[in-house]
Amino acid sequence: MEIRVLEYFVEAAREKNISRAAEKLHVSQPAVSKQLKQLEEELGKKLFRRSIYQIELTTEGEIFKRRAEDILEMVHKTKVEFETMENAIAGEIHIGCAESDSIKYIAKVIKNIQNEHKNIHCHIYSGNGEDLYHRLETGLLDFSVTVQNVDISKYDYIKLPTPDIWGVIMRKDSPLSHKQRITLDDLRGLPLILSREAMKEEYLQWFGNELDKFYIPVTYNLLYNAAIMVREGLGYAISLDKLANTDANSELCFRPLYPELKSELRFIWKKSQLFSPAAELLLREMKTIYA
Fold it and tell me: pLDDT band at 98, cuts 50/70/90?
């Protein structure tokens, strides 16, 4: 299975049309069609459903597309690393970030090294914990910032300076907005919008054995859309502070939970990881400032 064939497949899947994919790839349509047919024969699976006007991915095709995109991204990352090896102060750094105000600590270090080394480029990937761990394990990320507890048998890490505070995002016209902090009893009977990841750890810690007694009509993995749902009156989102706009001009406000619930933020990387010169420089600066 050649990289070129993966590129043909991914472009055809994105365009949903082999002719348009061939035009973008600057190859002939018959050549792309032939390679895709041979790919299906090699895998023993139909990857596309074909019609007169377009092609659609099968279930197997969707799975293969995700794998192909990961492989192509890794190939690109590897090429860039080797192209910049002669210059120890150039290259790309790939960092996965959970939603957190503590990303500011990473940003400060990136700014410092880019002030000195203009040919260092950082790529930030935002996602939930499961996605970030997958990308870190497969080598698509050099580092990741995580809210969840780290398995120290697999990762090394630096704890970031300040923990994040959990609380409730609500409309400013909510009766709870007049309270300085929110207790478990305050939330009983209210529609709650909860993070799917936090339900595994943080929420269980705070709700104790009572989480299943609460009304949870909506869950989320990233907060932006959840905040819109709060604004539209769907419920109360339990979230980390400083992620949604709750300033004076916003319709929303944030109130911390009581008893207080905090999450430590960690900057992690795989043990025995081999870094590019650029990533090595970033790690060295992070250790100097925060370790």
Answer: confident
